[in-house]
Structure formats: structure tokens, C-alpha cells
Amino acid sequence: MTTVVKGIKLRLYPNKAQIDQLWQLFGNDRFVWNHMLAMANQRYENNPASRFVGEYDMNYLLKPLKKEYPFLKLSDATSLLVVNHNLALAYQNLFQHRGGHPRFKSRRSAKQSYTGQSICTVEAKRRLKLPKIGSIRTSKTGHLANGKIKRYTISHDATDRYYISLQVETEVHDLPKTNQKIGLDLGVSDLAIDSNGVKYGTFNAQWLKKQAQRWQAKFSRRRHQATVAMRQWNHHHKLLKMALNDYQNWQRAKMTKARYQAKIANQRKDYLAKAIANASWYQFRTMMEYKCDWYGKQLVVVSARNTSRICSVCGHNGGAKPLAIREWTCSECQTHHDRDINAAVNILKRGLKATG
Ligand SMILES: [Zn+2]
């Protein structure tokens, strides 16, 4: 049995009271960040030689701060510690020339969030119990089932949606030992092919290109539609400056546009992810590595050099073959080979040799 940490993101559907509460908590984190930052700046201004206030000192300051500003007690206390931790990190990065000076956070920025480290529990199929917030409606909690939630971040984005990102510690059971071995060759026409001749995934450059063009066209069209809509609202807004209705409509248009943009960004990301997953041997290998690790399987990576040239039956090196040649016959032993399967068998042999 192995313990692994998985990242899971769920949509949150807070009710009206919970929305107010969440914004209070976003604000509390921002308040602590800005307060600590202002204090550190002032301290430095007063005496440039003074010692930097570290995470520990900032945590110590939280107590009197909570007394002075009781609304801070509405927050999950661990989230305020996370703020201090992040601010101390930002300063460390500054001192080590890895980042700029920490900046004040604005309530107007589209993205708001806070991170806590207390326990969240799954209440039902679509319900979580969060510290200080209580029971809240979510998207499906199914894959959280047996996990221990170690850290959570609640966020709000420009499309007016709420999310929770969770770090879940979960136990993975080793799969039964089968004593079976398989060779895998990462190919160009197929993502992977094994030494038994099974092919996995397809990589069709032509298809991917067509998809990309289709999405680009859709994206441009939608962007145009959104821009026209925006211009119209802006125009109305100019003509009827005082009309509250128009302001609301404009807000709505702005949100719709942001939603569109987020959707398109996601679609593009998805498409790219697919293209990369199909094409990227590196990603495939990384996934193989951690999955084998999770399930107690042994992964041996070997050099694929010459594996498509050498005959897996007699070991004769048949020389280089252009990629277009998918099958060949060994001139020594006359075995007829599928190029990729032959390579996968050679890879299996190399792996077995490497492990003794
Ligand atoms: Zn041969």
C-alpha cells in the first residue's frame, strides 16, 4: 500500500449567505496580507537596518490583530497562517533575487482566493463540509471517497464561479503480482505498441491540424460576437449614463464575455492537452512512472536505439529503414516482422536483460 497526494478541483455552489461569507474570508486573507506587508514596509522605512519580520513573528502578531479586528475570527485560522507563510516566501524570493517586491492585493482583482489546512469532509454525493462555512453544495465528490483532505483553496474567478481545489491524501493498493512482462515501444503512428502487438492511442497529425483550425475559427467568430456585444453595451452605456439598467446589462455582457473567453481558453487548453498527450512521449513516460509506482509495478526504461533495425528472432541488424516501411522480412532468418511489434519485443528483451 502506498500513500499518494492527488489534486482535485470541484465547482462550488454557495447559497447567498455563503457567498457573503466567502467574500468576507477572501477579504480577511487580503487584509492580513496587506496589513503584514504595510507593517514590514513601514518597519524598513523607519530603520533600514532592522531585522526582517519572519513567518514566526508574523504568526505571533496574528493574536493581537484578531483582538483589534474581531472579524478575522470568522476565518479558518489556518488560512491566515497560510497568508503569512506565503508572504514570508515572497520576501525570501525577493531577498534571493528570485522575485519582485510583494505587492498589495486589491479587492477589485477578478481572482480571489484563500487557502486553508483544516479538515474538510465529504457529506454526500454533492456536498462538502468546509471549516467555518459548513455544508456547501459542490460538483460530484465521488473521487474524493476514501481520501484525507490535507489542504484546500477556495477561489472565485472572472466568470463569477466558485471552485475548491483540494489536495487529497489517498492510499493506493498494489495490484496483484502477475509475474508478467511486457515491452512497450513509443511510436509515431501509434502512441504506444506492446510486444504482444496491441496498439494504444492514435496520433494523426492531419486530424489534429484540422481540429486546431476548426477551433481557431470558432474562437475568432465568438470573439467577434463578444466584441460586437460589448461595443453595443458600451455605446448604450454612453448614451444613457445614469441608467442603472444599462449598467447591469453591461456588467452582464462583461461577465458573458469573460465566460466565453474562459470557455475558449479551456477548449484550447483541452485541445492542446490532447495534442500533447498524443504526441508527447515524455508525458506518457512520466505517467507510466508514477502509475507503476502507485500500483507496485516495476518500470524499466531502456534505450530504443536500433530496436527497429534488429531482428527480434535472430538478432540480425537489418539496417535503417524509412518510417514509411511498416513491415519487413529478416534477410537472415526470413521472419516477417511488423516494424513496431518487432521493436517492442526488442525493448522487452533489453528490459529483461537490464533486470537480470
Ligand atoms: Zn532474423
Can you describe this structure?
The chain folds into 3 domains: 2-172, no CATH class; 206-272, no CATH class; 277-354, no CATH class. 47% of the residues lie in helices and 19% in strands. The protein is built from 7 helices and 12 strands. The chain has helices at 16-46, 55-68, 77-95, 205-239, 244-279, 281-294, 339-355, and strands spanning 2-13, 112-116, 121-124, 127-130, 134-138, 148-156, 162-172, 184-186, 190-194, 199-202, 327-329, 336-338. The chain has a 7-stranded antiparallel β-sheet with strand order 2-6-7-1-5-4-3. The protein is elongated and about 85 Å long.
Total domain units: 3
Strand arrangement across the biggest beta sheet? 2-6-7-1-5-4-3
Low-confidence stretches: 240-246
Q: Which hetero compounds are present in the coordinates?
A: zinc ion
Q: For the CA atoms, what is the radius of gyration?
A: 28 Å
Strand content: 15-25%
Counting H and I runs of at least 4 residues, what is the number of helices? 7
Mean of all residue-level pLDDT scores = 81
Order of helices and strands: EHHHEEEEEEEEEHHHEEH
Class from secondary-structure proportions? alpha+beta
What does the main sheet amount to? Answer: 7 strands, antiparallel
Shape: elongated
Number of strands: 12
Which characteristics define this entry?
single chain, 356 residues, alpha+beta, 7-stranded antiparallel beta sheet, 3-stranded antiparallel beta sheet, 47% helix, binds zinc ion, DNA-binding, transposition, Mobile element protein
